Every structure is written in C-alpha cells, then in structure tokens.
Amino acid sequence: MSFAFETDDGNVERGLRRIAIEQIHKALLEASAPQAEFDATVHQLRRRCKNLRGLLRIVRPQLKAFKLEDAAIADAASQLSQARDAAVMVATFDSLMAEKPDADGREQLRDMLTERSQALAQHVDEQALLAKFCEAVLAMRERVGDWRLKRKKFGAIAGGVEDTYRRMRQSMRDAAEDGSPETLHAWRKQAKYHRHHMLLLRRHAPDMLDGRSKLLAELADLLGRHHDLAVLVEVLSGRVAGAPAALNSVVELANERQHGLGEQAFALGRQIAAEKPGALTERLQRYWALEDA
What we know:
- The chain has one domain: CHAD domain, CATH 1.40.20.10.
- It is built from 10 helices and no strands.
- The chain has helices at residues 12-31, 38-58, 66-97, 106-122, 126-144, 155-178, 181-201, 206-239, 245-272, 277-289.
C-alpha cells in the first residue's frame, strides 16, 4: 500500500501504524540493498525520514509520543546528512556555472568542492552509518504498536493538519519580512510537511489534492535550490582566501539566481496559502467524509 490513509485501515490509528511500519520496512530494505550506491541510498533514507516526520505531524496533538518519536527520526536522519550534502554542493556549482562554462577560475573552485566532498567521504564509515540508522528505525518499529490516539476518525488528524498549514503560512510571512536564507529554509520545511499531509489524504479527493501536492513539491524544489545556493556561497567563502574575481563572480551569479527563485517561490506560495487554516481544515473534512457517503 502507499503513503496515504486508506478506507481499509478502518480508522486513523490503524492507518497511522500501518503507514509507519511500511515506511520503516522500505527504509530497512533500502539500507541493506546489495550493490546500491551509497549516495542514492542516503537520499532514499532521508526521504523515508521526512515521510515519517510528516506522518507524525498529522497526529501531533493526539499522539503523546510525538516528541520522542520525532526526535528519534530526526536524529537518525541527521546522521546521514553530512554524508550527502558535500556531494550536493558540487552538483549545485555545476548547475549554477552552466550559464558561464568558461568563467575564469571555475575549475579551481570546482576542484575545491570536489576535494572537500572526497575528504568528507573518506571519513565516513558507510556500513557503520547504515547499521546505526537501521538500529534506530528498528527501535522505532518496536514502539509503533504502542502508539495510541485519543480520537480515531478525522478528529485525530484535524489539529495536526491545521497546525502544520498555519506554521507554513507563518513561516512564509517570516521569510517575506526577513528574506534570509534561514527563514526561506524554515518555510521549505513546513511546506514539505504540509505536502506530506496532502499525500496522506489524497485518496479521499485525488482530483483536488494531487494537484495541490504537485504545487507544494514545486514550491519545495524552488526553496531547496535557493538553500543549496546559500550553502554553496558559504562553503566557498570559507575556503577561498580573500575575494578573488572567480569567487565574486560565483557569489554574484548565485545571488541573482536566488532572487529569481525567491520571486517564483513567493508567487506560488501566496496562491497555495490563500485559504485560511480553519477553512482548509473544514474542506479537507468534507473530502474525508466522501468515503463514508
């Protein structure tokens, strides 16, 4: 079955457990897949962690174990982050410099990023890292059977859906006011959690919620690229002494690209967040009721 509540679940509590177990099972299979590339495996495992954290947030007000479980999966994901982020910087640089393939100093800067990625990779014990991840999610799987919700129907998820959507709207306002990479990144996190909720509910109104999920994925992609550029500039600035022309050129190009990505993100975000939290929750409740009609 998929990452969505199904009619066959019977109630939200059973669906919650079923989805969590499925995500954990898939993560364990991916972590132990023979011949799989490490970077690709880490990417998939981080996706599973994000799915699980989104799932937890849809029942956040109802699940007593929320803080424990959210912290556990966040810690498991953080162990994998550094192993992949260095390689992402090389890809981000290549994408940025595609507009200026002959820029002076380009190869020197790229070599610095590649050396950094390789140096970090050499200090990563891939098997030990994956084994520790599996240990963490196996422990979580043992606890899933004890998850209890105060409510079993839409009331079990109403508060979580509304709270996450409200957080997304507030983080967008914060990003518009502050404009820093940190606030845009915080907005991205909340947008992704809201997207997880649309995916979890999509069986109840696929024609309406699939489209919203795709728009949220587009928004997260725009904000993700914005964040990668901010990290790229930070990494290069910390490794290049002084302010050579090549670095200045990269920073200028990155700022220009970030500005464009930000404009697109805010234009799309304002449309996605136009509905008030209470109104959206009521609409989703009506969609949920369609299965019982």
